[in-house]
Amino acid sequence: MKPLLGLFVLMLTGGIADAAPSLRVVDGDTLELSGVVYRLHGIDAPEAGQKCTKPDGKSWACGKVAISVLEELVLGQDVRCDDRGQDDYGRTIGVCTVGTRDINARMVVTGNAWAFRKYSADYADLEDKAHQDHVGVWQADTQPPWEYRAEKWAVAQQESPNGCPIKGNISENGHIYHAPWSPWYTKTKVSVDKGEHWFCSEADAIKAGWRAPYWGR
Fold first, then answer.
1. What is the pLDDT of residues 47-71, one digit of tens each?
2. In DSSP terms, which residues pair with 31 in a beta bridge?
3. For the domain that residue 61 is a member of, what is the CATH number?
4. Contact 114, 147 (CB under 8 A)
């Protein structure tokens, strides 16, 4: 009984380390840490279904690569994120680090994200260097993600009911919404009779209880 008694004492005194925080990569510039969704400050990664261009004119799955690179940087690591307020979707904006390594910066340095200059110039110099070195998304002229989203949105808005193009789907994975740039957008059907919805914005979908898909593993 002594070993069990010793274990009980350790638990009461905090002698057993707390469980590791849960960590999930949502997409190339978003992760979920201990239930908090962090939008990486100052960067914008290609969307999950976005393709980029190679020097020979062929395309490559830059969105999927960005997700994989972020996973390699953070999964299994002690990740810390600061809090710089919230965006319009309730996500916490932050710089995430592993030790002294700035994860946001690494995504830009490796050419797997743009510096999101519309909101911050913090990583502009790193982007300029990546562009100069033709790494990642800078191998050839590539549409930045904010233009990609705007283009997809404009097309879907014309084809959706009342100009509200976000699809609120209900599945075994829960209430999940798909924006026009989602890889599953065209395959997703909205059955209003089953309680599914069309939304005019991501904020509306989140407020109604839907969440964005997780593209990481």
1. 999 999 999 999 999 999 999 999 9
2. 25, 38
3. 2.40.50.90
4. no
Confirm if 117 and 131 have CB atoms less than 8 A apart.
no
What is the pTM (predicted TM-score) of this model?
0.86
pLDDT tens digits along 174-205: 999 999 999 999 999 999 999 999 999 999 99
Domain endpoint, select from 126, 142, 158: 142
Both 31 and 111 in one domain: the answer is yes
Cα three-residue angle 18-13-97, rounded to 5 degrees: 25
The two counts, helices (H) then strands (E), for the chain are 6, 14
Smallest CA-to-CA distance from 150 within 31, 50, 13, 20 is with: 50
N-term to C-term CA, the chain: 42
Closest CA to 91 of 199, 175, 203: 203
In angstroms, the CA 85 to CA 42 distance is 13
Query: What is d(CA 174, CA 196) in angstroms, rounded to the nearest whole number?
Result: 11
Q: 133 and 164: one domain?
A: no
**Does 5 fall in a domain?**
no
Its domain, for residue 186, covers: 146-207
| Residue whose entry in the numeric block shows the structure tokens 């789907």 | 169
Amino acid 166 reads I
Residues 56 and 130 in one domain: yes
Task: List, edge to edge, every strand of the sheet that includes 30-33.
Answer: 23-27, 30-33, 36-40, 92-94
23: buried, middle or exposed (CB in 10 Å: 19+, 13-18, 0-12)? Answer: middle
